[in-house]
Amino acid sequence: MRVGRHADVVSSNQQAVKADEDYIAQCRAQGLYPLGYYPHNIHFIWMGATATGQRQLALDSARKVSASIPDEALGSIPILQGFVVVPYWAMVRFGQWSDILADKGPRVDTPFARGAWRYARAMALTATGRLDEADTELGQLKVIVSDPALKGQVTFSSNSGYAILRIAPEVVEGEIAAKRRSGTRP
Fold it and tell me: pTM score, two decimals?
């Protein structure tokens, strides 16, 4: 991924996911392997597919990585919530506005998950010309981003939830301003 071999990222991680699924099924693996390594490989399929513009593969992988994390694990291993929000990043990247607007919210109630959802909603509302509603979502997003709980680690990376989400209000504000300036509606 870091050297731009995105097609290799996709194919090697598809092979890894297949091997993971065989191993997990045959050995009834538990613990770190199915909670960390397996979703990590799915996550990399999403990343590579996103980088190469493979919309359907990216969306499918985003949903799969989120679904690979059991709800009960989220309470005891908060860094797994980074996998749970990937569908929001994918839907924004590929302009799946109706899917975002139909989403009822994150399945885990944490500031990070709520922030990712509010960001996605604000982007969808902006893209569909519902700017007053986008402003409301932006206000909610700003409140979430100011939550001190975001200072902790929420993914396997060293980035805090705040580091990941802090630019989101600025992106949304810029999109709203551009839409208002151009006077375009969908």
Answer: 0.93
